[in-house]
Amino acid sequence: MNKHLHLVNQTDTNDSNMSVVSLKEVTMSEHIGYSSAGSAPLKIKRDAPEKRDAFHQLIAIVGVGGGVMLAIALIIVSPETGPSAVFKALLIASIAGLVAYSVNFYGITQGAPQAAIGFKFTGFITLLGIWIAGAAMAIGSFTGVVYPSVQQIVLEESGAAIGEYIGDVNQAVVEAGRAGPAVQRIAEDYRRYAECERKFSCLSRVGNGGFGPVAAQMHKGLLRAEGVATAFENGDAERRSLASELARLYKRYQKKLADTSINISERRAILRSIHLEIEQVGAALAETVPISLLISFEEELRRGVSIPGQINANREINSINRQHADSLEQILASLDQETIKTPVFPIRPGMMSSLKYIADFAAFAAVILLAELVLPTVLWVVTYTKLVWEIERRTENDPPTKQQNGFGDLIDLPPLVTERYEPDAVNDGGKRRAKIVAKNGGQK
User: Fold this and answer.
1) What is the model's pLDDT at position 272?
2) CA 372, CA 94: separation in Å to the nearest integer?
3) What is the DSSP string of 398-427?
4) What are the φ/ψ torsions at residue 216 (nearest 5 degrees)?
5) pLDDT confidence of residue 414
6) Distance (Å, rounded) from C-alpha 221 to C-alpha 301?
């Protein structure tokens, strides 16, 4: 590459017996130690760097702050406890903070200048490293800041799901309470038709009563309906008791959830225990609703009957059964326990799952992104842009100064001094005399 840098004058240096001359242009080949005019090696001297300014302190503060927040996140996210867990978290956070600081610092102080003088790939890699390091530290810092609140939100969501579950269960209890009277009405209907058939043959319309096959079929249906109704009535008191227990447990769950005087980890353990009790009571409550018995009865009614030689009676009985089956079908639809499932207690959230709630903590996320990602990127771009501008404006008659450059020692390009030692240099009193030869003419 032949990118040129315009450099400044240096006065004679008596201590080194070297005469430094004005240089106008130094090519990239001279920067690495060789002159395009000859094969003699060059020495390149730069001014001693100045004391680090506020920029470097800012980068260090960002790195340390990100490391601290990452350590907090690792400690509270990890299920492990004790000194060893804390030590591992601090070690990982320290390494991550040091890496992030190094990537930012060298990306800005080394990557941007190299990109400015033509090494675009180096600039791209360092900028990409700043983005990756910034994103990683931002995730860790965000988790460290919001993790306790995220745990609270997760448990509140679980509480809301339990509330919906208990509401569905209470609705099922109400519907189960409707099933018993509905089946009882079917039993009463069978009793009325059985009595009518026995006295007047109102279904078979043959003869003047008696306990024939039609009356026997209606009596059989009566016994079946009364058995189902009794099963629902016997479980009604138990269902109401268990439903009250669920309500009591849910109230206790909400009370513990809102108790911020208890550590979030301890609250989580208490709420898990209450959640387990809710699951057990809910399962016991489901057993008190004889859904299978009601389904079997509804299917029997829908299949109908077939009494030999009783065409009219079969038609009348099956019409009655279908009406009852339709009413039971509606009740069964409201008692569909496949849609009533106990919610699973949430697992402990991790770093990535915490990002799910980034919208709830947008202000924190914005500040962290500014510090960990936007700030280093802006500094890199500003450094690169100003370096390119500085390189273009330097001329022999307009040497740069600290006041002109600004931005501390980042964009200041110290003077380069090229020293070429002639092959005929001789010892003078035990000292080698360096002959400095300028590029323009080779004068000694």
Assistant:
1) 92
2) 16
3) B---HHHH-STTTS--PPPEEEE--TT--E
4) -65, -40
5) 45
6) 9
